[in-house]
Amino acid sequence: MATLTRRAESVEARSFVSAAVRLLEAHEASAGVRQRKRTGATQTAFLRAAEAFLGDLLLAAKIGRGGWVFRSRQAKSFSGGEVTYRQFMAITKAMEALRLIEVVDGFNDMKTINWEVGQTSRYQKGKAARFRATRHLLDLAAGLGVEAKDAGRHFQRRPPPNAEPSLIMLGACGPNLRTRRPG
């Protein structure tokens, strides 16, 4: 799954992200997709979204499974995350137009089962959209020193800055628990 939580940790990874963002912005300008240039916070957020998605794509190329990574494209699936729906859609549309990624659309299909006694049951079957880095994107990354086999070193998962820390209990003690002593 494209978690969109990866961060470029190396100089090479940051230069790869910058080069990819320049390509995306040049495409948007030449295709007339955007009427105004991003500035300030919106530019930083776009850069962050591209960084997260590129990290997920390269990690998928390293792990295998055909290099595919999946992500729902429903707007509600982006609520509470660092990457917004609009940023993600802008990035994926530009990357697909530039042939940097392959995309397989997701689907939802409602299935109905008719039982013998006249009752019916319904369930939903579907798949999220799938994305895969093309050879062109992998070559761009490799040319800047980011090989897919080293993606985990270049792009590491970081919790979002607004995430609450998780509480991990290493051991429990209480009046009803017995402790076993070695011996």
Mean pLDDT: 85
Assign the structural class, choosing from mainly alpha, mainly beta, alpha/beta, alpha+beta, or little secondary structure.
alpha+beta
Give the % helix: 25-40%
The assigned CATH architecture is: Orthogonal Bundle
> Mind telling me the C-alpha Rg?
22 Å
Amount of beta strand: 15-25%
The dominant shape is globular
| Widest sheet: strand ordering | 2-6-3
CATH class bucket: Mainly Alpha
Outline the low-pLDDT stretches.
Answer: none
Q: How many structural domains does the protein architecture include? A: 1
How many DSSP H or I helices? 5
Q: What name is given to the CATH topology? A: Arc Repressor Mutant, subunit A
| Major sheet summary line | 3 strands, antiparallel
Q: Output the helix-strand order.
A: EHHEHEEEEHHE
Distance between the termini: 47 Å
How many β-strands, per DSSP?
Answer: 7
Brief summary of the model shown:
The chain has helices at residues 11-31, 40-63, 85-97, 135-143, 151-154; strands at 6-8, 68-71, 101-104, 107-114, 120-127, 129-133, 155-157. The chain has five helices and seven strands; from the N terminus they run E-H-H-E-H-E-E-E-E-H-H-E.
